[in-house]
Design brief:
By secondary structure, the chain is mainly alpha-helical. It has 20 helices and 8 strands. The protein is about 65% helix and about 5% strand.
């Protein structure tokens, strides 16, 4: 009998195993209404929230944390979530098709009662966080989040191309890399228009067609408000507005145009009316708005410097907690489209550094709380890479004061980076999404790359140190230490991490 060493599971098997472990813990396939994912989270709409086993989910090795919003969100991290989601979708479909017919209920209910129960569950889950403003922000985020992988890939290629250009290496390859890095950005308005129409209930290709007008070179022959238009004027903001208008026009046409003529008249009127308004109004107005955003961001950091960085870095964690950070996505994208990078992201990334420093301080201050220390150890690697949800929702936010001191660390790191912007060393990120250490390959600026990297690293270190010090000395009251510095499930034979092994064991 041969004894071959066991092979490690293939990546696909590992992702399927993760999905298979998650599915029963969220109530099985029949409890899943819809599935989506963003950069780091698997987002599931549930029929019955009470069927979810939160603690068992958090204990899975692949799960970095859970967040409850309008959907149930399982934090898996970048890359992993994109691979696990299709496996999860496939398992849900398989489970539904294989499920036997449900037995007849001894106490049948009417369709109206079932609808009322479902509506009550849905409203109870959304009531806390479903304000119109936040729902609108979430819909806007849904437009831009699918674009992030391309932004990251093209941003890294642009950074590599800039390095080769500065070093004078591979001159024959540099133009090719420039074309690869710039192709997506030159057409990003089209993708924004497509996604906008899709998100707001229109025909996606019509939204893309109207947005494509913005980047068409021939618009340079058109004059609006006394000035000649420029290809790309208005950028993603113009594309967003144009596609929203196209959705409105299309829906109105669907109601008014006879069904026999709909297939011909509705697309024509949608593109014609939206296109004319885009050319003779939206492009100019959106262009002015985009220019104002760029000028404000540059002016804010060149004049406000350290103070602006302190405010931005200190407030970003509360924005994430409230879901308001999604409003920054179009601003980041506009800045990248204008200057090739967003100067705001490296400063906002300092919030994650403060969070990491605070978590390390909590680990040091609570040596007897084994469960919390284990949570911190498992979440820190993700925290260093800029994935802050496990530390926010698993450590600092539930404790209260450490969340505030983590914000202090983020403010200090933001002030450090902002100060150098004020001194004329401005830089930013060529893409959105990554943060922490993962942002290093995406840094770009007017100064030497080594200087840019050193300043960003200095900001991270400042955030770590100040977040740690603020939490260690001010993050706990005496009562908090008394209540928290104990293991909820102690092992009687295990040595105490502070006083050492039990006296009997020591004497033996």
């Amino acid at each position: 009998m041969s004894t071959e060493p066991a092979k490690s599971p293939e990546p696909a098997d590992k992702n399927r195993a993760t999905a298979a472990a998650i599915l029963p813990l969220v109530g099985g396939p029949d409890n899943v209404v819809s599935i989506a994912h963003c950069m780091t989270r698997l987002r599931i709409a549930l029929r019955d929230r009470s069927l979810v086993r939160d603690e068992a989910l958090k204990a899975l090795p692949a799960v970095l944390g859970v967040v409850e919003d309008d959907t149930y969100q399982i934090v898996l991290g970048p890359g992993t979530v994109a691979r696990v989601t299709p496996e999860f979708e496939a398992l849900v479909e398989e489970g539904r098709s294989a499920a036997p017919p449900a037995p007849a209920s001894p106490h049948p209910v009417t369709a109206g009662e079932l609808a009322a129960q479902g509506a009550a569950l849905k409203e109870a889950q959304k009531a806390r966080n479903a304000t119109p403003f936040k729902l609108m922000l979430r819909r806007i985020a849904n437009i831009f989040v699918p674009l992030i992988p391309a932004l990251i890939g093209c941003g890294i290629i642009a950074g590599l191309n800039g390095l080769l250009m500065n070093l004078g290496w591979l001159p024959g390859v540099v133009p090719a890399l420039a074309a690869i890095a710039s192709g997506f950005m030159s057409l990003i308005a089209v993708f924004v228009g497509y996604n906008t129409a899709k998100e707001f209930g229109g025909t996606p290709i019509l939204g893309g067609a109207v947005a494509a007008i913005i980047v068409f070179p021939g618009v340079a022959k058109i004059t609006a408000f006394g000035t000649e238009l420029r290809p790309g004027q208005g950028g993603v903001l113009g594309a967003l507005a144009a596609a929203l208008l196209a959705v409105h026009v299309e829906k109105r046409c669907r109601r008014l145009v006879p069904e026999a003529l709909d297939v011909l008249v509705t697309p024509t009127l949608t593109v014609l009316i939206s296109g004319l308004v885009t050319l003779f109004g939206l492009m100019f107005l959106a262009g002015e708005a985009s220019a104002a955003i760029g000028a404000f961001a540059d002016g804010l950091l060149s004049t406000g410097g350290a103070f602006a960085g302190l405010v931005l870095g200190g407030l970003f964690l509360p924005l994430v907690m409230l879901g308001l950070h999604q409003a920054l996505i179009p601003i980041h994208t506009t800045l990248i489209e204008q200057s090739g990078h967003t100067v705001l992201l490296p400063i906002l990334a300092m919030a994650g550094a403060g969070q990491v420093g605070a978590a390390i301080a909590v680990h040091c201050r609570l040596p007897r709380n084994g469960s919390l220390r284990a949570t911190i150890k498992s979440a820190l690697p993700a925290g260093f890479l800029g994935i802050g949800e496990p530390l926010i929702y698993g450590v600092s936010l539930p404790l209260g004061r450490p969340f505030v001191t983590a914000c202090v660390g983020g403010a200090a790191g933001g002030a450090f980076v902002g100060l150098f912007n004020q001194l004329g060393i401005a830089f930013g990120s060529t893409a959105i999404g990554p943060s922490g250490w993962a942002l290093f390959p995406l840094l770009d600026g007017t100064s030497n790359p080594g200087v840019t990297v050193a300043i960003y690293a200095g900001g991270l270190l400042t955030g770590y140190l100040v977040g740690f010090a603020a939490t260690y000395f001010f993050g706990f009251t005496s009562q908090m230490l008394t209540d928290l510095d104990s293991d909820p499930d102690p092992d009687p034979g295990a040595p105490d991490p502070v006083s050492g092994p039990p006296k009997e064991a020591a004497l033996a």
